[in-house]
Amino acid sequence: MIYTVTLNPSIDYFVKTDGLNEGEINLVNEQSIVAGGKGINVSKVLKNLGVESVATGFVGGFTGDFVESSLRKAEIGTRFIRVEENTRINIKLNTGKETEINGISPAIPASALEQLEEHLLANLETSDFVVLAGSLPSSLPYDFYGQLISSIRKKGAQAILDSKGNPLQQALAHQPFLIKPNHLELGDLVGATIQEPRQAAAYAKQLVNEGAQHVLVSMAGAGAVLVSKELAAFANVPAGTLKNSVGAGDSVVAGFLAHYTRHGNVLEAFKFGVTAGSASAFSTGFCNAKDIDRYLPEVTVNLIEGEEG
Ligand SMILES: Nc1ncnc2c1ncn2[C@@H]1O[C@H](COP(=O)(O)OP(=O)(O)OP(=O)(O)O)[C@@H](O)[C@H]1O
Ligand SMILES: O=P(O)(O)OC[C@@]1(O)O[C@H](CO)[C@@H](O)[C@@H]1O
């Protein structure tokens, strides 16, 4: 089974306006209100690709009710822990440029943390993958992802982490199966400005040396890099018009995992993941299998170092 853990979910309020005039009334042309958060998005894309998952994390208040019920409506398995304060609301404003205003996370009591760990670990099997994705609610210790990954690995299961900064740095030593920073997040971590794929590969190698099994660095329209102990590879992205980048990174993770759990080949999963990211970036919602099939022939993976196999 695949479990996705979203410690800090959201309602994403997508709005489209002709522009933004500060200090004035701005009218919305288009809007949509959806359950969000990185792990939840991974579950949604997995569902689109015919792969079952169980979404877990913390939800609270009327906003949390909405998140849980919309996942149920989408027939995605849920096992959320309830907290008292409201799940946050994140505004995704598209004026031609994309602007995000992310809300304040609810407080997470220690009892809820324990409950989450218990529920997650109780039924974990060695063939399971756990996707840990997104920010930590501000009341959680920064090493919480590291702690969770350590417990997941003790159960013999694999963890995938999409996070940044200290929580990511701290988690590396626990040997996550895959991490997916974008080039800016990788740059922050290693204290460098990353402009091109070979540079990204060199810095990603440092994270492999620190414990990550595979590092997938997405570079938006400039392609992506995958680095493991034995190899480094580059994938280009297909041509298309960017419609909405929110959740494109989550689609990369979902695409990678959907392919890897079916076929077990890291480089092919890399190619499929990057294509899924672009297919989502080129649509207003998330990609499905047909979208990916359409763009897959445009994506090529080339080794920068090492041998396939
Ligand atoms: N301009 C683009 N053209 C083609 N593909 C793109 C473009 N922008 C993003 N993508 C796709 O989306 C993936 C993720 O984008 P990015 O590197 O910005 O990661 P991210 O910052 O994690 O994404 P997100 O915007 O979801 O937070 C890329 O690997 C690529 O597949
Ligand atoms: O604040 P975080 O947890 O880092 O990111 C949250 C978020 O921006 O990420 C998703 C897109 O990747 C959105 O659904 C959600 O609003």
UniProtKB/TrEMBL annotation:
InterPro entries attached to this UniProt entry: 1-PFruKinase (IPR022463), Carboh/pur_kinase_PfkB_CS (IPR002173), PfkB_dom (IPR011611), Ribokinase-like (IPR029056), Tagatose/fructose_Pkinase (IPR017583)
First-level EC class: transferase
Keyword annotations: ATP-binding, Kinase, Lactose metabolism, Nucleotide-binding, Transferase
MF annotations from Gene Ontology: 1-phosphofructokinase activity; ATP binding; tagatose-6-phosphate kinase activity
Catalyses which reaction(s): beta-D-fructose 1-phosphate + ATP = beta-D-fructose 1,6-bisphosphate + ADP + H(+); D-tagatofuranose 6-phosphate + ATP = D-tagatofuranose 1,6-bisphosphate + ADP + H(+)
Domain of life: Bacteria
A GO cellular component annotation in the UniProt record: cytosol
Pfam name, any one: PfkB
Domain (Carbohydrate kinase PfkB) ranges: 11-288
EC numbers, comma separated: 2.7.1.144
GO biological process: carbohydrate catabolic process; D-tagatose 6-phosphate catabolic process; lactose metabolic process; small molecule metabolic process
Pathway the protein takes part in: Carbohydrate metabolism; D-tagatose 6-phosphate degradation; D-glyceraldehyde 3-phosphate and glycerone phosphate from D-tagatose 6-phosphate: step 1/2
PROSITE patterns (alphabetical): PFKB_KINASES_1 (PS00583), PFKB_KINASES_2 (PS00584)
Protein family (similarity comment): Belongs to the carbohydrate kinase pfkB family. Belongs to the carbohydrate kinase PfkB family. LacC subfamily.
Function field: Catalyzes the ATP-dependent phosphorylation of fructose-l-phosphate to fructose-l,6-bisphosphate.
Protein name: Tagatose-6-phosphate kinase
Protein source organism: Fictibacillus solisalsi
Lineage, highest ranks first: Bacteria, Bacillati, Bacillota, Bacilli, Bacillales
